[in-house]
User: Fold these one by one.
Assistant:
Number 1:
Amino acid sequence: MTNFAKNILCIGAGYVGGPTMAMIAHKCPQYKVTVVDINHEKIAQWNSDRLPVYEPGLDEIVRAARGRNLFFETDVERCVREASIIFVAVNTPTKAYGAGAGMAADLQYWEKTARQIREAADSPKIVIEKCTIPVKTALAMEKILSSAYGSVRFDVISNPEFLAEGTAMRDLEFPDRVLVGSRETGQGLKARREVVDIYANWVPRERIIESSIWSSELSKLVANAFLAQRISSINAVSALCEKTDADVREVARAIGLDSRLGSRFLNASVGFGGSCFKKDILNLVYLCRSYGLSEVADYWEGVVKINEYQKERFVLTMLSAMFNTLAGKRIALFGFAFKADTGDTRDTPALCIAKSLVEERAEVVVTDPKALENARADLAGVERVAYEIDPYKAARGCDAIAVMTEWKLYAELDYERIYASMAKPAFIFDGRNILDHERLFEIGFNVFSIGKTPMAHA
Ligand code: UDX
């Protein structure tokens, strides 16, 4: 153990902690990196051939580093004692109860972790916030840590994570930027340098941005709010396109070529999902409201409202296209993950759509190459839902297909074969604009996409 230059610990073996630590271990063989979690089952999975997180490139890195300088363990106390740098990546879901329910972050796991660190530590530690947390959490963390009876020194650093699911390993290896925020005191700056040094092993120095701890915390929320705002903006425009014979993809292309705007995150869709966008915006809204900034809060809340509207609009389009009744009709949902290349279904638009369709008394068949297990858990107790891994079988006998996730495989299916197996008239609702709509119309489908005039046979 003494051979390692640094002893780094991460508390929380989830989507953020696992991949981030695997990358640090991969890039810095001189450091010992440990991931600890009280969930024994999860740690056992990290130590097995079947990791609990699916990310392209993750398996290889974990396999090479595990047992060499990357370790997965369950004894939090011992691990805290041994480490000098501790990342905290426990989950902070939206609070489901009490004040701020549905808006504020639930900090119970996070606070428990802070207390655990305080109890176990017997030497100075740098404690790094990695999870998305409300602004000023670092202050609370400092208070909890410094209320220890002993004289152990803790420095709290904010180092928000910007990785997106499905591209986590690439985002970690070639980040647009890494943010490291600290107190601007002598001791705070020293701790900041230690964390900067870790990333400097592979990230170009000019991409490592240093700031105050508050700017760093706020930047994370604002980055996600801006990204989500672009999607809500183009989705709002998609509703107008459908009324005016414009095509939202053409509009997106035209505006995206303006270098001030850029072309990414302008794909109109059935709505954004994922564990971060809604949660972070609601956090931002809550923060603004708590400072009495109601206009600012309303502005950002609009981003979430448009997203809800987009999902409702999608179901209403299906309903009106299919002669105002879905009762007894069979509808295949192509995809359940909140985006392609992940099995994650947190806050996926597909869940809301599936539930609305069932409320309309439709029979829903869910298919997804990676997310069927999660779909089953999310829809547990909901009647009239079936699960089928094979999209051809899922569509058989259906009245409609609704594309929920932009999995490449859905663009490559044999739609003539699918059409032949479906009830007629057959409908396709492309919630991701990934299919060849003209071709589908030629085959015989009634085609409804996002932000484009529908193509329906008379
Ligand atoms: C996001 C941020 O991108 C990342 O920086 C942050 O750390 C965590 O939150 P993630 O939730 O993994 O990452 O997914 P992202 O790729 O950002 O997509 C979010 C949602 O928006 C998905 O449902 C996606 O399908 C949707 N989306 C994205 C669109 O509908 N249109 C687009 O143009 C882009």
Number 2:
Amino acid sequence: MKVALFGAGGKVGSVLIPSLEAAGHEVVDGRDGPDGCDVAVDFTRPDAVAGNVERCLAAGVPVVIGTTGFDADAVDAQARAAGFPCFHAPNFARGASLMMRFAVEAARVFPDAEIVELHHATKRDAPSGTAKATAARMGGDPPIHSIRLPGLIAHQEVIFGGPGETLTIRHDTTSREVFVPGVLAALEKVRDLPPGLTLGLDAVLS
Ligand code: NAP
């Protein structure tokens, strides 16, 4: 497929280019316009997403959004109005998807829980999209603690406490290549999704 990549020069985008090309896709810079592309990918910044999605939908191009911290309701409305599918996962790592699932399961047993999310120092949004999605799925509004430090990539702990015991579920991203399989799966499936914004990696992983 011909893929318009918004954020091609960024930390994630620069990892995606060779990986998508190795998987057989043609990658063009989204800033040059999405016309003629089959699908677009956005790993930019929260305030850039709506504009990029608007350009893509006007060109009839569905968008896979990796950027976090954007207004998902607004993008859902844009995509519904245009009659095209878009997809967003706050975390394209399969291990993070499992972490969220395990946290939901543990929350049924341990009502007292807190989330600690740790990311590189240049991350713009806090709390992270992964932490907010985890909290929403767990219910009960667990507190979220955000740490931003050089040396980190993306990490999250969900800590449960009960009388005489604690349980910690932790996921660590050690390389941004971890996001590639999830993005490739989303590229393959996004055009089969219903109009509007579909959320969560489980929707595109079989
Ligand atoms: P980054 O290194 O800051 O890269 C962002 C890139 O986007 C920069 O090259 C920037 O170019 C470009 N950009 C900004 N506005 C743009 C626009 N309107 N059109 C096209 N390109 C634009 O950030 P990153 O670490 O790659 O992360 C990007 C986003 O993905 C963040 O929101 C992050 O939280 C999210 N993320 C999501 C996942 C996931 O699994 N869903 C994983 C990692 C990161 P200039 O510098 O020239 O402006």
